[in-house]
Amino acid sequence: MLLQVTDLKKSFATEEGRLDVLRGVDLELAAGERLALTGESGCGKSTLLYLVGALEEFDGGDIRIEHQSLAGLSDRERAALRRDSIGIIFQQFNLIPSLTVANNLSFHARLAGREDVAWNEQLAQRLGLTEFLKAYPEQLSGGQQQRVAIGRTLAARPKLILADEPTGNLDEKTSEDVLNLMLELVAETGAGLLMVTHSPRMADRMDRQLVLTAGQVS
Amino acid sequence: MRLASVLRVLWSHWTYRPLQFFALLIGLSLATGLWTGVQAINTEARSSYAEASSTIISNALDYLERKDGTPIKPETYLALQKSGWRTSPLLEGQVQFGDGRSVRVVGIDPITMPREMAALTQPVQGEADQDGSGGLVGFLVPPFTVFVSPGLADLKLNVANIGDVVVSENLPEGTLLTDISLAAQILNKPGEISRLVLAADQKRTRVNLSEVAPQLQRIANTSGADMARLTDSFHLNLTAFGLLAFAVGLFIVQGTINLAFEQRRAMCRTLRVTGTSMTVLTIALLLELLLIALVAGTIGVLLGYFIAALLLPDVAATLRGLYGARVSGELDFHVGWWLSGLAIAVAGTFLAAFWSLTKLIRMPILAASRPRAWARMSARSTLARLAASGICFALALVLYGWGSGLVVAFTIVGAVLIGAALLLPDAMALIISLFEKLAVRPVSQWFWADTRQQLPGLSLALMALMLALAANIGVSTMVGSFRLTFEGWLDQRLASELYVRAADEQQAQQLRTWLAAHPDVDAVLPIWSVETRIDGEPGQVFGVADHRTYRDQWPMLDRSATAWSDVAAGKAILINEQLARRKGLRVGDPVTIDEASRQYKLPVGGIYSDYGNPHAQAMIHVDLLTQLYPEVPRRRHAIRVDPSKAADLSRQISAEFGLGGRSLVDQALIKQRSVEVFERTFTVTQALNVLTLSVAGFAIFTSLLTQSAMRLPQLAPVWALGLTRRELAGLELLRGILLAGLTMIMALPLGLMLAWLLLAVVNVEAFGWRLPMFVFARDWLMLGVYGLIATALAAAIPARRFSKTEPAELVKVFAHER
Predict the structure, then answer these.
(1) How far apart, in Å, are the Cα atoms of B284 and each of B8, B340, B817?
(2) B502-519: per-residue pLDDT in tens?
(3) Least C-beta-crowded within 10 Å: which of A12, B6, B19, B61?
(4) CA-based torsion, A55, A60, A63, A67: positive or negative
């Protein structure tokens, strides 16, 4: 199993006391599988994604990626995991503004020591970015920026791809184009995809769907 | 009501970001403080000159003295009074008290003192009254009240007829002031008058001096009004430094204000959308700025007072050492510089905010918030900056080629500094781009690219740092070069082992005879001089003997091959550098010196360096001097003796002639005193230098700190891709050090250029001499190390803060629009 989440718990301190965001979430994802995570705003979808992405630490339960538990990992080990095994696509794209499109595309792969120039070129071509390689992110439209973000993730060939509302900032037509491309390329890499989305239409394109309600999978 | 509501909303930004508010407040306070401090020092010094101009002590009034330097007889004084001359007798002399201290005793006659001297007697009476000594009565009637300078407060006076001893701040150090009859008793000079002070308003009907007292000559005052002119260059120097410090402080203010305005764009947009007119918004912003400026200005003025109070004693010592100007070491609080401090704070704030305010006023009502837009460098602004920089350099070149005067010299310095500062961001961007191109690893590539992108936001602080570093390098190079030159010059100039001044002409004659017969004395060199006009300028002409001391040692800058032989033959004159530069004189040019009734013309045989003297000076052969000015005082001499026998000879002279204290000085003592004067001269400059550097360091610190909060969106994606917070914090620290390091490298040539301008342009205009430039690589290295340590400390705090940022905070970057 690529990803195993067992009885995952996470709470935050608020002025009113502790707020339990995740109350024992269980889920599994196999390599090459595509899973949609849906639910109302504030139900903990993004929190779950960030915990799986080793961005935050959880309070209880466990997360295993390729059987490696994330519990008790040091900051350095978590960073290594993000670098080597996980790719995250954010709603806000989160490209590196100071790097050109070409450097943004290859950045994660080079960081992980897995740069494949031919694959990068293929990605750029298929994502329609060839003519923008020397441009900076701020010179691109939202759709183009999200394509760069997807390309950056795929260029590193991660085993697990996490996508947080990847088309949430795009119009319908662009969303459709971007999603098609993403799914096509993810399928080619054989990575597992966990995607948080509000859109039932997007969720329908996945292999499986899970709904998160009040911090639990229903 | 609406205005108050808008103000409250605007103010909430500062309560939400208190750090930014304090950065703004401290930046403006520091800028105002340094400026006000300098202004306070200048005001205090100038008011001291005004006081000095009304005191006899500093020779502010014209006076009469005997041409031969001997005492004036009471009969001459009475004859002058009868002939319509308004004069007042003054007796002065040096006396050694029991504890070995040499004291200058000044005796005056308060009854006949000219009105202009009231400033001297009034405080004296006032102080005497406070002490219950009876004011004028205590001064005139035995036992006499004696006034001493603060350093003589513990003086033991074993003299009869002395009443109260009052310490007076108005007296020059080492001075005792009393009634002339007691002074005559202390000095053992009964019936003697050293000089007759002339009241400014003399009767038109008075008889000609040459008829009543042909043996007397009128000596024009040498200080007072002259003092202001002489010290102008020093004060301009201080003002320039104050302005530089103020400009460096304004860099902080502008950076913070720009950032705050950009961060409040969304707030302003909301205010506009909810019905606030642009007029009300603008008034509210202006009121807010005014309030901040007034608070910071008040803090700045207090800070300035503190700085001035700290520096004033050194300034006083400098002015005394350089020009003999008396400046009180204590500071009065003037409403004038309080107001000017507030005014400069307000003006500086509005100047710094002008660009941001204009942009905000022109902003369309629905313009999007772009928190980092202020930091972007557009190609257009780069071009504008390069053009402005070019104009500055061109202006400097034109002024160097065709301008003259001290203000022009400082304008050149200012233009070069501003031109270089404007060039800095683009020069650094270019260098960083080169590194970026050379980088191979992804992290280093990102590091350079990110550094380049961060540059605009830091450029103001880096400009401030470069200016402060360049000023530091420039000033320390100037001072170091001056020190080396000055010490070498002292060795040349003070070649004789002993310097002696006889009490009167008779004693001088005896001394010469005695020294001539002394087996240990190699030579007795006259140091005789007259005050006259040299090429139209007031100055001193010295008579020198033809001796190897001069031929071998005198610090000549330029000379003809036969200079000394020509001087010995009475066919040439040597002039000091100041006079040569002011008058554009070269070797061979004719120079006139005023004789009693005619002008005497001689060609320039050589030009010598004469540091520390602002006046014109010339040297001719001693025989020619005595021929032209037969009544020249002949009391001072230099003695050449085997250095090992100098101390013994000094003791013998002292025993034989009763000379000591300032009348008999050895070479080492003069050198020591000269070096002390020199060191203190630059204490203030060095202190301002350090303060300016501190302000620049603070600019870097506040810039890094205010930017650190905005750095999260740039750093979080890299963190998410697999770098640890610690690694990123390390890179942030490295970036700060690297930018400072690059700034230092660029500040070095600018600092050297500044040093050259100070030595070759400003010094020439201010003092009249040009100095050779020496380089002090070790000092630069130390400055570099200190600068890097300071920057590392400044960068360490935000870096550490980032390393401790909770992942939950970083994750927020991905979840919200920031």
Answers:
(1) 9, 24, 28
(2) 878 888 899 899 998 989
(3) A12
(4) positive
DSSP string across B45-87: HHHHHHHHTT-TTTT-S-EEEETTSPPBPHHHHHHHHHTT--E
Q: For B814, which of A83, A106, A164 is closest by C-beta distance?
A: A164
Of B446, B724, B811, the CB nearest to A50: B811
Helix (H) or strand (E) holding B216: strand B216-219
Comparing B274 with B786, the larger pLDDT belongs to B786
Cβ-based neighbour number of residue A177 at 10 Å: 16
Q: How far is it, in rounded angstroms, from Cα B488 to Cα B392?
A: 37
- For residue A156, give the chain B residue with the closest CA: B721
**Can you tell me the distance from the alpha carbon of B12 to that of B178, in angstroms, rounded to the nearest whole number?**
67
pLDDT at B54: 41
Domains of chain A by residue range: 34-56+74-207
- For the segment B195-213, the average pLDDT, to the nearest whole number, is 79
Question: How much is the pLDDT for B232?
Answer: 62
Please enumerate in sequence order all residues whose Cβ is within 8 A of that of B550, keeping only pairs 6 or more positions apart, or say none.
B544, B564
Contacts of A53 in chain B (CB under 8 A): 720
Grade residue B52 by pLDDT with cuts at 50, 70 and 90: very low
β-pairing verdict for A3-14 and A60-65: antiparallel
Per-residue pLDDT at B123 exceeds 60 = no
Grade residue B56 by pLDDT with cuts at 50, 70 and 90.
very low
**A114 has a chain B CB within 8 A of its CB:** no
Contact state of A55 with B720 under an 8 Å Cβ cutoff: yes
Which chain B residues are Cβ-neighbours of A165 within 8 angstroms?
none
Classified by CATH at the fold level, domain A34-56+74-207 comes out as Rossmann fold (3.40.50)
- Best of A21, A22, A73, A92 to disrupt the B interface (most B CBs within 10 Å) is A92
User: Which residue has better confidence, B767 or B527?
Assistant: B527
Would you call the peptide bond into B590 cis, given omega within 30 degrees of 0 as the criterion?
no
> How many whole angstroms separate alpha carbon B658 and alpha carbon B518?
17
Tokens of B817: 């629009």
In angstroms, the CA B531 to CA B538 distance is 7
B587 alpha-carbon distance from chain centroid:
32
A42: helix, coil or strand? coil
Contact between residue B330 and residue B169 where contact means Cβ atoms under 8 Å apart? yes
Is there a contact between A103 and B449 if contact means CB atoms under 8 Å apart?
yes
- Cα gap B650→B668, rounded to integer Å: 13
Q: Give the β-pairing of A192-196 and A160-164.
A: parallel
The first and second tokens of residue B499, run together, are 């310097």
Can you tell me the distance from the alpha carbon of B546 to that of B569, in angstroms, rounded to the nearest whole number? Answer: 9
Task: Choose between A212 and B161: higher pLDDT.
Answer: A212
Per-residue confidence (pLDDT) for residue B122, from 0 to 100: 46
Query: Could you check whether the bond before residue B772 is cis, i.e. omega within 30 degrees of 0?
Result: no
Question: What is the predicted ipTM?
Answer: 0.84
Rounded to whole angstroms, the maximal C-alpha distance in chain B is: 103
**Residues B65-73: what's their mean pLDDT?**
75
Which positions in chain A touch B716 (Cβ < 8 Å)? 94
Query: How far, in Å, CA of B240 to CA of B754, rounded?
Result: 13
What average pLDDT does the segment B664-683 reach? 72
State the Cα–Cα distance between residues A56 and B809, nearest whole angstrom. 10
B392 by DSSP, 3-state: which?
Answer: helix
Q: Measured between alpha carbons, how far is B636 from B670 in angstroms, rounded to an integer? A: 15
Percent of chain B beyond pLDDT 90? 17
Model pLDDT, residue B298: 92
pLDDT tens digit string along A134-162? 998 888 888 889 889 999 998 999 999 99
Instruction: Compute the mean pLDDT over every residue in chain B, rounded to the nearest whole number.
Output: 80
> Which residue would you say has higher pLDDT here, A165 or B572?
B572
User: What's the rounded Cα separation, in Å, for the pair A108 and B719?
Assistant: 11
Are B90 and B63 spatial neighbours (Cβ–Cβ below 8 Å)? yes
